[in-house]
Specification:
Elements lengths: L2 E6 L2 E6 L4 H6 L9 E6 L2 E3 L9 E7 L3 H22 L4 E8 L2 E7 L6 H16 L4 E7 H10 L3 H7 L6 E7 L2 E4 L15 E5 L2 E5 L16 H17 L4 H9 L3 H25 L6 E5 L6 H14 L5 E4 L28 H12 L4 E7 L4 E9 L7 E4 L17 E7 L14 H16 L4 H18 L9 E4 L5 H14 L8 H11 L17 H4 L7
Helix pairs in contact: 2-3, 4-5, 8-9, 11-12, 11-13, 13-14
């Protein structure tokens, strides 16, 4: 019997070559945790069904991690689609976007879906999960996969496979059901202990545990405003005739990328103008315009473009930067790791900010501070600001939707805008493109272009950024008066050229290697598009360079 050495944090063990990760962990005292859903093999993410053939270092991946949630969610999605097809054999399932801590999708069965239809699907899902049915990965040639999907009538997958660069495709099988999924799966259905299926007209929300709630599905919170934004931008995709990666690639390869860029930018400009019109109608009431959103959502460019549209309407806004109201560095609050938390609300001198904001609104002269980031303290340089009663103040920052930031201003005197890159483009009907991935790719490119950070540094910082968003931004997004989607349907075809060399440079011995590898597999599906016709005022220019605004 051939033997190999497997190293874990608590020691090294000699095992038989060819065993699966699941078998090895099950026989290892203290490592058969029910919430282990995968493992990293020398920094490379692998499924529990992966067989080890040589000496390795093994790191379990728990459900409490981002990778763990992705695998759980993906497997649950597969079980849902299989169950739906068993209840409604000719149905069509479309997984569309993230909503209310779950996945929103639509089920086409030839008539309107009712709640009792979903309950039937839910019961079948529970039966499949209770049976702990095996999920198998089958490698087939690209030609075989295309032929199979043609026979199944899955034209969206056939079109996607035409852009796959490798000669083999990994197809997953659960019972009779076969499908292609971008990413890894659990070894069997029995791992899916918790889920919820919520009826949400005209579709459903498939909900699952989160990184912070692994034992149960977190409480349901309806996100009506966010849902409306996704619906609006789905219609935009129909106007642009782009519904998935394959249709985007087709437009690029037909030489129509320039037309697509102009249409997408025109739709965004129209939306910004509509927001400006809404503010202008209430110009006597609205004194402060708050702009908030997660990292790499394009807040800076949006604020500049909104200001221009307001000026077109005869309104002359002024801007105030929250960064200038940071407390001195020695007073910055610490996070749970004892590190300075610059994204905490308490990192801002709320007393000074509110005093000056109130004085400005009352027409008083105010000497505004400037924060010296080199010295880590505020400075006063004799800059005096005074505004007229018809001049709104635009404030852009992550805490803009939190009422605690602007306590001195009555709620009805504020207009709040939530901005994010809410990706409406998916890979195919069953494989969505997460909004988070879109923003992460933007940030990797921007950090390289303007902040002297390589992709490795950005990926290392990203988990902390995400924690800050979950704490300081997402809980308040439904309080916005309006939501703006900064995603451009063509942008990943352009960002591809910028981000791929940066990701390729990450070495295999880095803990971030598996994330870089995942993003590279994802961007490989896109046909590259030249940025030549992207206008200088585009939000995308904030990340790739060449913006007419100082970002």
């Amino acid at each position: 019997m051939d033997l190999i050495k497997v190293k874990l944090l608590d020691g090294t063990k000699t095992v038989a070559k060819g065993q699966t990760i699941q078998e090895i962990l099950a026989a290892w005292p203290g490592q058969s945790h029910p919430r282990i859903v995968a493992a990293k093999v020398n920094n490379d993410l692998r499924e529990l069904s992966y067989r080890l053939e040589k000496d390795v270092e093994l790191t379990p991946v728990y459900l409490s991690s981002t990778d763990g949630i992705r695998i759980y969610r993906r497997t649950l999605k597969m079980v849902f689609i299989r169950a739906a097809k068993e209840i409604f054999p000719d149905c069509r399932v479309k997984i569309m976007y993230s909503l209310s801590k779950g996945l929103y999708g639509e089920l086409e069965i030839g008539r309107h879906v009712m709640e009792k239809d979903l309950r039937r699907v839910e019961e079948r899902m529970k039966e499949i999960i209770a049976a702990d049915e095996k999920i198998e990965k089958i490698k087939v040639s690209l030609e075989e996969a295309i032929q199979f999907f043609k026979q199944e009538g899955l034209t969206d997958k056939v079109n996607l496979m035409n852009y796959k660069q490798l000669p083999e495709v990994s197809v997953y099988r659960s019972g009779w059901y076969h499908d292609y999924y971008f990413g890894y799966m659990l070894p069997s259905t029995g791992f899916l202990k918790e889920f919820e299926l919520v009826f949400h007209l005209p579709g459903f929300i498939l909900r699952f545990p989160s990184e912070h709630s692994q034992e149960k599905v977190p409480p349901f919170v309806e996100q009506r405003k966010l849902s409306r934004v996704f619906y609006e931008y789905e219609k935009w995709g129909q106007v642009l005739q782009v519904s998935d990666v394959a249709s985007l690639n087709r437009i690029v390869e037909e030489g129509k990328g320039g037309d697509l860029i102009r249409l997408a930018e025109a739709l965004q400009e129209k939306k910004i103008a509509q927001i400006a019109d809404e503010i202008t109608k209430e110009r006597e009431r609205i004194r402060v315009v708050m702009i908030a959103g997660p990292s790499s959502s394009g807040k800076t460019t949006f604020a500049q473009r909104l200001s221009i549209q307001l000026r077109v309407n005869g309104v002359k806004p002024i801007s105030l930067s929250l960064d200038d109201y940071f407390v001195s560095r020695e007073f910055t609050p610490l996070n749970e790791k004892g590190e300075p938390d610059f994204e905490a609300l308490e990192a801002i001198d709320l007393k000074l900010f509110n005093e000056q904001l109130a004085d400005l609104i009352m027409g008083e002269k105010v000497e505004i501070p400037r924060f010296n980031f080199m010295q880590g303290k505020r400075e006063y340089r004799g800059e005096i600001l005074q505004i007229r009663p018809d001049q709104p103040i635009i404030i852009e920052g992550i805490h803009g939707l939190n009422e605690k930031l602007t306590q001195s201003v009555p709620k009805d005197r504020k207009f709040k805008v939530y901005i994010s890159a809410l990706t409406q483009l998916n890979m195919d009907n069953h494989n969505r493109i997460p909004t988070t991935d879109n923003r992460l790719i933007r940030r990797i490119v921007r950090d390289s272009q303007f902040r002297s950070h390589d992709a490795l540094t950005t990926l290392r910082l990203w988990p902390a950024v995400r924690r800050g968003e979950e704490k300081n931004i997402f809980p308040f997004q439904e309080e916005a008066d309006i939501m703006f989607n900064s995603a451009l349907i063509y942008e990943l075809a352009i960002l591809k050229r910028y981000v791929e060399p940066l990701l390729t440079a990450i070495p295999p011995d880095s803990p971030e290697y598996c994330e870089a590898k995942r993003l590279l597999k994802f961007t490989a599906y896109f046909s590259p598009l030249s940025e030549q016709e992207v206008p200088s005022n585009s939000i995308l220019k904030e990340f790739i360079g060449g913006s007419c605004f100082v970002c």
